Amino acid sequence: MDKNIEYHFLKSALTVDETILSINDFMEWLEEKKNKTKHVVTSIPFSKLQEWGFNSSTGNLEHSSGNFFLIEGINVKTNWGNLNTWQQPIINQSEIGFLGIITKKIDGILYFLMQAKIEPGNINAVQLSPTLQATKSNYTQVHKGSAPLYLEYFIKDRDDVTVLLDQLQSEQGARFLKKRNRNIIIEVTSKIEVKDDFCWLTLGQIKQLLAHDNVINMDTRTVISGIPFGNLEMLQDINVQNKLDTYGEGLLMSELDEISSLQSIEDIISWITKHKSFAELDVERIPLNQVKDWSKDDKAIYHKDHKYFSVIAVEVEIGNREVHSWTQPIVKSAQEGVIAFLIKKINGVYHFLVQAKLESGNFDIIELAPSIQCLTGNYRKGENEYEVEFIDYVLNPGAKNSIVHYSTFQSEEGGRFYKEQNKNMIIEVGEDFNVNVPDKYIWMTLNQIKTFIKFNNYLNIQSRSLLSAVNFIK
Known about the structure:
Elements: H1 3-13, H2 23-36, E1 39-44, E2 52-54, E3 61-63, E4 70-78, E5 85-92, E6 97-106, E7 109-118, E8 126-129, E9 132-134, H3 136-139, H4 152-155, E10 161-170, E11 180-188, E12 198-202, H5 203-209, H6 218-225, H7 246-256, H8 265-278, E13 281-286, E14 294-296, E15 301-303, E16 309-318, E17 325-333, E18 337-346, E19 349-358, E20 366-369, E21 372-374, H9 392-395, E22 403-411, E23 417-418, E24 421-428, E25 441-444, H10 446-453, H11 461-467
Parallel strand pairs: 6-11, 17-23, 18-24
Antiparallel strand pairs: 1-16, 2-3, 3-4, 4-5, 4-13, 6-7, 6-9, 7-8, 7-12, 10-11, 14-15, 15-16, 16-17, 18-19, 18-21, 19-20, 19-25, 22-24
Helix pairs in contact: 1-5, 6-11, 7-10
């Protein structure tokens, strides 16, 4: 990648003052958008769904057009972990959608064009989304509505557009069957109209907003997580004096230092390859009406013990969307979860504890996950099907001589998940935390993690979501 691009990314990440819009002004703007846009989301019986229904043969919940997505069943067999076989409903959405952000240099600073978007499952109605957030069914207008704004910048070759980042990244492996989206950041050099519900923010401001609960949506988080900041040469060109505290400086060194890591990139590739070679994952698609331990009535598809998640139906009315009203199925979690990275200074550089994680919908069996990831699990009661390693560092970090650097609630994607949030945490462990960790875990610097994000199907969406919150500014 062009060093100049990484320079402008880092400069934007370090810019939070004297910006087009202050954080306080932005929060007022966001609240205004929420209040002025009509948005009503109501739970309804499945029998009141329009254009959706249960297939008379398979019981799958599907759209009459055959597009968008469907809810079907899978039968899973694996040798990974304590539970070796199970069945579950899953979202099958094979089309690849766009998650795209337009950037533009304004007064020498790279700004990001962000959208205040209301999704049916959002906890606080409106959240900050990428410039373009659209499934293929959306942008090809299967819904018979208008095309998404700014689509033309992403689908046509243009002299005024430069691609800065372009990656295929996975979605939630426990909920989607091999789902991926195109994460793309472009720079536009020509004049661009800022439409209603859009605003310019620096990357540093977006990261500041990630300190607030449920302001930045998951799609924005996954896109910005892949942004590279280069290496230590960047510090020759950028003045960071008085901008960083000790923790922020440590994070920046972890991003830029290419030589002080505990493991080499080759060691990490070998570790991942070993686990992918050992792990077996056999996923068979089965009719939804054959899934064991799950039941259906007119209100929900649910597990017999009311664990994990359910599928419900909602009627949606949102005034500023391409289609103003519709009905759809949506996944509702059983309870909140926890996503956390444990970090530790090794060789003077922050390392993040990464785990190899197998989930039923993974595209390539194993993905790299946060140190602790238990979504909608019974981790507080110790009633998970699997033991959650290091969970005590989340539940009682003070007793573990640890420092919580980051702790907020962040939402899952509101188009498919109903009011689901998870506690996101970054916790620095003490000197007594053993550098030698269980075999399914490995220490990686941020620089190494960013190397793997460049490629498909390495970092899962939970790890990318949490990494987006890494902020150098004090």
